[in-house]
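COURSE: Structural Biology Practicum
ASSIGNMENT: Worksheet 4, Part C
STUDENT ID: 0417
INSTRUCTIONS: Below are two proteins. For each, the amino acid sequence is given first, followed by its structure token string. Answer the questions at the end about the second protein only.

PROTEIN I
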Amino acid sequence: MALNMDALGKTIGPIMKDYSWKDVAIYALGVGAGFDDIEYCWERKLKVIPTFSIASIFEFLGHVGINSGMNLAGILHGEQELIFHKPIPVSGSFTTEGRIAHYYDKGPGKGALIIAESDTCGEDGAKLFSSVLTVFSRFDGGFGGENAPKKEREYPDRAPDFTVEEMPSQNQPLLYRLSGDLFDVHVDKEFATMVGFERPIMHGLCTLGFACRALLNSLCPGEPEKARRLACRFSKPLYPGHPIRTSIWKTGDGTACWSTENTATGETVISQGIFEFGDVPA
């Protein structure tokens, strides 16, 4: 089935979602939070990990998949950018509206990129965050479109300022999926092997949540509301139970670049990372 060109630019939404403090805490547990950063798990002190944002609008991602006509058996999260306009409340409702902005053709047998953009507002109508999502659809290339422009980011030629090592559990996807991403490749061994993996893989957004915690704890500990922008590329799949290391380089006042590595294999699983942080504009 070919990509649906008629879907380009058409509005998706508005999509409504109510959430409670329990959703915030379940998400935090799903991305490795615990007693060491209890403020993300305990309702008496609760703060929201900023990447809760993209996990909470998974229904929008589903609409992108359906409207685009992409082959769902071959999809992987390619890139993600999040821009934070205001701190995310610990409970309330989201309203998300967006569109499929671009299709890029990597060529026959090489796949396609689907770019979707969205804005999400809180229950008072104020914009909370914006998302630019890139889906890599492995089986949809060769439709004759233009290829995506190259985007490469250089890292400083020095040791990172911070490194954070963690060990997602063998069962991490089972906990993370409670935040909304129920795709079979993360839980069903038969499906995972059918589409080319040894076994179920980690959600890329789950690994991103681990990285986000590392960035917050290193650069603005206890102040997740200072996150302004987070962007990255998902470079390699990660199997649950493999150790990871997030390396962080400060590049300026309120800016950093970062990457996350599978320390069992030496492979970089998230690359091209950007983090911007600072006080919320008045």
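PROTEIN II
(use this one for the questions)
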Amino acid sequence: MAAEDLHARLDREPGTISVFTGHLGAPPTWTRQAEATHYAASTMKLAVLAALHRAAEAGHLDLDTPVEVDNVFTSARPDAPPYSCRRAYDNDAAVWDHLGGRASLRWLAERMIVRSSNLATNLIIEHVGLPAVAEVWRLAGAQHSVTGRGIEDFAAREAGISNLATAADLAALLSAVATGATRPGPVASPAGCVAMLDVLCAQQIRQDIAEGLPDGTRLAHKNGWVRGVRHGAAVVYPADAEAYLLVVCTTVGKDQTDVDARQLVADVSRQVWRARHDLSVLISSSPG
């Protein structure tokens, strides 16, 4: 698929398709509606991960101290009762198997990323607090992204409290973590950034962006999806080219199947991979 064909393909898609790509530490090569807000789905877990590492570095908690694994959480809506999340809507049975027991925050953070555990995510938010997650977005330079509530906090959702993300903001956060692994950055220490990248590279749900890459390609990524929404955010590390950022956010409506949305993100990833030696070729006919 030529670059022009990719642009035309995205123009034909319903809803909003946002793309941000470029090399690490450099201005973006190609953006498409990168400032448009989308429901964040599980990409919000990137900011939760960074907030946890910042809290550990500040001495507010110990990543290796076991904590209670329960399913009762504080709603972001002040007048609402505590809420719980549902096992049937989680991707990771391992955390639920610890319900009523204890587990370390480090292990919970790993499950939050590699299996996108909702229960682990809510447990970590309880320990770090939503203001700490908001601070991560601020430090990364995010302009529009908000993590306003935990997962399945329906009372907060009904009050209009949501989790939003843009392709540009997700790229800014991933860039801060990736470049922060080699020099001090705004989000966490180099050691903390290395630890986060290791977890992101251990992702077991290799869909979306990963499906557009050759087998074995190293990438640090997190995806997220609900009906009508499919996102992928990654740092890709080719063996024969510079590392690059790729974020694709899609809100295409509930009539679009999950298979179609996954294929769309994979197709964008495949085209960017083919241009990895010279991402400027993607600029041709770009809608901006």
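ANSWER KEY EXCERPT:
Q1: The two ends are 19 Å apart (CA to CA).
Q2: Residues 3-283 form a domain with the Beta-lactamase fold (CATH 3.40.710.10).
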